[in-house]
Amino acid sequence: GSTLGDAASRTGRYFGTAVSAGKLSDSVYTGILSREFSMITPENEMKPDATEPNQNQFSYSGADRIVNQATSQGARLRGHTLAWHQQQPGWMQGMEGAALRSAMLNHVTQVAGHYQGKIYAWDVVNEAFADGGSGARRDSNLQRTGDDWIEAAFRAARAADPGAKLCYNDYNTDDWNQAKTQAVYRMVQDFKSRGVPIDCVGFQSHFNANSPVPSNYRTTLQNFANLGVDVQITELDIEGSGTTQATNYRTVTQACLAVARCTGITVWGIRDTDSWRASGTPLLFDGNGQKKAAYTAVLDAL
Ligand code: XIL
């Protein structure tokens, strides 16, 4: 195929990007988006602060603009995200204990229910594990409601949208030898053994000099897949430029292609100037919307 989406579809996979509703009026942006990508993740518009700005008052206007774009170009949607320690609305940040637990579950039920049938996969829970060597859960108001908050969120999501794949999503879980990777692996293994509804694990894959593409990345993806879940690369960006960056993008693409249950790759933005990163050139298109060497490396690897 001559586009990322077409090339990925030849092996039954998708190729996606994060999309910001505020950029949909930019014709260069939407031109690349509709040409190249077969999956869309709202970059911020489905996060709890966006969808429930006041408790029990839901707001879907930004998200719906992206849903409409996806429909018009025939792309699917990854929902991101139902429960996270960041980008909580102010009212939620101030809650704790049983009240927070029930507010969180209500949020999951309402938002997943609102989009029932329209979402390919939901990142039900995002970034719940701590960095470093502890392998512990990240401390947060949600975690302090009890260790079972993650499985409770997954059960509520399944009840609200039985057809959506339900994912756990995190970063720094790419290196098989890291404690955080092992801790997430054990959680997924436990969920599968107890029948907690989980279908997929998302690897954000924000790579840079401090956190490069690990040499065992494919092994990590395969080991998770062997637990009986799909794996997806959900927020890919790789700092750098030129041949080095292109080689890293090729390595990541090849890793996904080598794992049967790696169902797709999503980059976290279209042009370098769309990146959430304050500086650098981590994406596949330059600021003018021109294809970079990294783009060609990915296309050729698909
Ligand atoms: C980022 C967005 O790209 C920014 O626009 C926003 O200001 C902060 O969040 N991990 C995630 C994403 O799961 O939701 C984050 O997105 C990037 C890191």
Description:
Keywords: Carbohydrate metabolism, Glycosidase, Hydrolase, Polysaccharide degradation, Signal, Xylan degradation. Residues 1-301 form the GH10 domain. This is Beta-xylanase. With 302 residues, the protein is an alpha/beta fold. The chain has 11 helices and 9 strands. Helix 7 links the parallel strand 4 and strand 5. The chain is globular, with a radius of gyration of 18 Å. The model has no long low-confidence stretch (mean pLDDT 98). The chain binds (3S,4R)-3-hydroxy-2-oxopiperidin-4-yl beta-D-xylopyranoside.
Protein topology:
Elements: H1 4-9, E1 14-19, H2 27-36, E2 39-42, H3 48-51, H4 61-73, E3 76-84, H5 90-93, H6 97-114, E4 121-126, H7 149-160, E5 165-170, H8 179-194, E6 200-203, E7 206-207, H9 217-225, E8 230-238, H10 242-257, E9 262-267, H11 293-301
Parallel strand pairs: 1-2, 1-9, 2-3, 3-4, 4-5, 5-6, 6-8, 7-8, 8-9
Helix pairs in contact: 6-7, 9-10, 10-11
Bound molecules: (3S,4R)-3-hydroxy-2-oxopiperidin-4-yl beta-D-xylopyranoside.
Question: What is the chains' assembly state?
Answer: single chain
Number of helices: 11
Low-confidence stretches: none
* Radius of gyration, taken over Cα atoms and rounded to an integer in Å: 18 Å
Helix % is 25-40%
Structural classification = alpha/beta
Termini separation comes to 9 Å
Identify the overall geometry: globular
Strand content: 15-25%
In short:
With 302 residues, this protein is α/β, with parallel strands linked by helices. The chain is built from eleven helices and nine strands.
